Structure formats: C-alpha cells, structure tokens
Amino acid sequence: MHFVFLPSRRVTKGREADVRRQQILATVHALGLRTLDLYPVFLERSRLAALFYHHYSEDGYRLVGEQIADYLSRSGHPRSLASSRDR
User: Fold this and answer.
1) Phi and psi dihedrals of 45, rounded to 5?
2) CA 49, CA 51: separation in Å to the nearest integer?
3) Contact, 76 vs 82, CB < 8 A?
4) Is residue 21 part of a domain?
5) Which of 3, 18, 25, 86 has its CB 3.0 to 4.6 Å from that of 33, i.e. a possible disulfide?
6) 7 with 38: CB under 8 angstroms?
7) How many helices (H) and strands (E) does the chain have?
8) Is 87 part of any domain?
9) Distance (Å, rounded) from C-alpha 56 to C-alpha 83?
C-alpha cells in the first residue's frame, strides 16, 4: 500500500500547516506505508498559484499524475496503468 501526500493551497503556506504535514507523515511512516510526499515538488514551482483553482488546476493535476506515475515506475510497477482510451 502507498500513501500520497497531496498538498492543498493552505498546506503550502505557514509553519502550522507544515507541522500538521509532519504529523501526518510521521503517522504514515509508523504504519509502515510507502510514501510519496508531493509537498516539496509543489514548492519547487515558481508559479505555485497556477497549480490550484478551487481544487487543483489542469497543470496541478498533470503534475500530480506525472509524479505518481514516476513514483510507481521507480517502485517497480508497470507504467501501463493508462486507460484504454490513451492506448
């Protein structure tokens, strides 16, 4: 089982949000789950606001999808998880 930490717009700002994130990740680690933390990936973006609308923007969802696909590939999962319409 894998856990993916998906940051919200609120989570990308402020110390309190980072403390909450650390608590979540500590719990997930204690449960022994493999973890993909997308928080640092989001913070690397120069146009962070462009990744959000009310939820994620198209660019935000694309980033999440690419990161999850790369993570699964590195974890030994086949990349053929695309839907049949993409084949």
Assistant:
1) -75, 130
2) 5
3) no
4) yes
5) 3
6) yes
7) 3, 2
8) no
9) 21
Q: Which tokens go with 10?
A: 């609120």
Q: How many separate domains does the chain show?
A: 1
Q: Are 35 and 2 within 8 A, CB to CB?
A: yes
The answer to whether residue 16 is domain-embedded is: yes
In terms of residue numbers, what domain contains 38?
A: 2-81
pLDDT tens digits along 5-26: 988 876 556 677 778 889 999 9
Pairing of strands 34-37, 2-5: parallel
Among candidates 56, 50, 85, which has minimal Cα distance to 68? 56
User: And the tokens for 19?
Assistant: 């403390």
The Cα–Cα gap between 45 and 18 comes to: 17
